[in-house]
Design goal:
11 helices; 75% helix; single chain
Length: 302
């Protein structure tokens, strides 16, 4: 068996992922570097195509096409087209076509991989934000310590496995640091102050993601921001008010929190004005929990 025959037979196999080529083909591929590389690229292309989402109506269109072929096959036997594979024009054209197919398949494969990695990184940030918010809602130091110990190693391991961007890594490290701090402290105003700094980092990350057209990242970050403002900053300030902890010596921190929130609202408003279509809704939802942009009076909690 020569290379041309082996490669033509490989192209006739329905699925290289689930089917083992017959022994004569395997024997040639294992002993031929060129055909082995051809086989490897075909497998990669098949895997990349398998990851593509199925278009709506694809199954129905395929069934209709098969019925059409069957009906024509009954009416008349199709005329076979014979190709001279050794023609001086055919082989270069086949090489160009194969190169284009593999290049497109490789591009789609790596694009799909990048989207999966982006989704995994975004999910990690969202879960770490939720972990911090939940730690802030735990009442006793002992329970906080247990909740912290139950998650910290898992999140560190996931951070090590994922290729986080510099912005994502800074945010993740800050969330680890805040979680450790929350496990050892129970000060409503100080917690609100830390949540305020986290919210600022989330808004800055949203700004960068919006500029890069990462709508799903913006959506996830917007949900995390709303959770931090509502269940972190606002809830802690309300708790401090009920407990009578908003003393004069702490008004400086409170003023900083409210001023920071007003600045974040202005930044969100700017992002919403620059964003098209449905993306505006993500920023609008984040703005709803951010209060009045002009409210920097420490006597106003929400």
């Amino acid at each position: 068996m020569n290379c041309q025959e082996a490669q033509e037979l490989l192209l006739q196999i329905d699925s290289l992922q689930t089917s083992v080529p017959p022994w004569p083909i395997r024997e040639h591929v294992e002993g031929c570097a060129a055909c082995h590389e051809f086989y490897r690229k075909l497998c990669r292309l098949e895997q990349a195509v398998a990851w593509l989402p199925e278009c709506e109506g694809a199954a129905e269109a395929d069934a209709k096409f098969q019925r059409m072929l069957n009906s024509r096959a009954v009416a008349a036997r199709p005329r076979l087209l014979r190709i001279n594979w050794n023609h001086r024009l055919v082989r270069p054209l086949l090489a160009i076509a194969a190169t284009l197919i593999l290049a497109i398949g490789g591009t789609l494969f790596w694009h799909a991989m990048e989207r999966r990695q982006e989704a995994a990184r975004t999910e990690l940030i969202g879960q770490m934000v939720s972990w911090n918010v939940e730690l802030g809602q735990v009442a006793t130091p002992a329970d906080r310590s247990r909740a912290y110990a139950g998650g910290v190693d898992t999140y560190r391991q996931r951070m090590a496995r994922l290729q986080l961007s510099p912005v994502e890594r800074r945010l993740a490290l800050r969330l680890l640091e805040d979680a450790a701090w929350l496990a050892q402290h129970n000060d409503a105003v100080a917690e609100a102050d830390r949540f305020s700094e986290t919210a600022t980092m989330l808004v800055n990350h949203m700004d960068g993601a919006a500029a890069n057209g990462q709508s799903k990242v913006v959506e996830s970050l917007g949900k995390s921001y709303s959770s931090v403002v509502d269940k972190g900053i606002n809830a802690k300030l309300e708790q401090a008010r009920r407990l009578g902890l908003l003393k004069t010596e702490r008004d400086v921190r409170l003023a900083r929190i409210l001023l920071n929130r007003a600045q974040m609202r202005g930044q969100l408003q700017g992002m919403m004005n620059r964003s098209p279509g449905l993306a505006r809704e993500f920023f609008r939802q984040a703005l709803l929990v951010s209060g009045d942009a002009q409210d920097t009076d420490p006597s106003h909690i929400k």
